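It is worth pausing here to work through a concrete case rather than discussing structure prediction in the abstract. The textbook approach is simple: state the sequence, then state the predicted structure, then interpret. We follow exactly that order.
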Amino acid sequence: MTSLDPTLYFARLTSGTIALDVRRDRYLRLSAPIAEAVEQALSGQESAETRARLAGAGLLGVGASPVQFSRILPCRATHAALSELGNDEPSLRVRIACVAALARMRTLLRIAGFASALARAQRAVNAPLQHDLMRAIALARAFEHARAWLPFERRCLPDGLALHALLARSGLRATLALGVRDKPFAAHCWVQAGDWLLTDTIDEVDELTPILVI
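Step two, the predicted structure:
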């Protein structure tokens, strides 16, 4: 059994390994020796030297993680729901629900933090939810319309978490993904239903490697 911190998630890129530390809300670019130690730990070939390297890098476990997330997307997105947004504005009721979802998520991130917001997202999708692509696309477009009215700076994490929560609250299943790329480093959060992107464009996520998926 690996002694790696269970709140760490890894993406293997051609240029090296990136770690997402959920507990501390940070990304780490691992050096080659540390990446090698991580690989050994993940493959069950942990040694005293491996543990020493991991301990020196602060990557050893501090206790059980209450939530385990996936690292694998169910499928890559091939269509974008917002590519042709149209002029149909959502009803006032839907617009209020979208604004409220974003306000709640921004508050949750500020008060409870990143790990708590992700855990809540995982609990939401553990409930019985429907796969209804057309409804999910319609709600994503309504959220985008409502988002344009808000004075908050656009940020992918609270926006993605808010849309994901709104879909779950509406009984709809969707996937929240966090991905990374290197050279230059970038991290991004997006939402998709099946192979349909509900945020962003295909080009914006196509070069990203998923590191955590809900």
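Step three, interpretation. The mean pLDDT is 91. Helices lie at 32-42, 48-56, 92-111, 114-125, 133-147, 156-169, 202-206.
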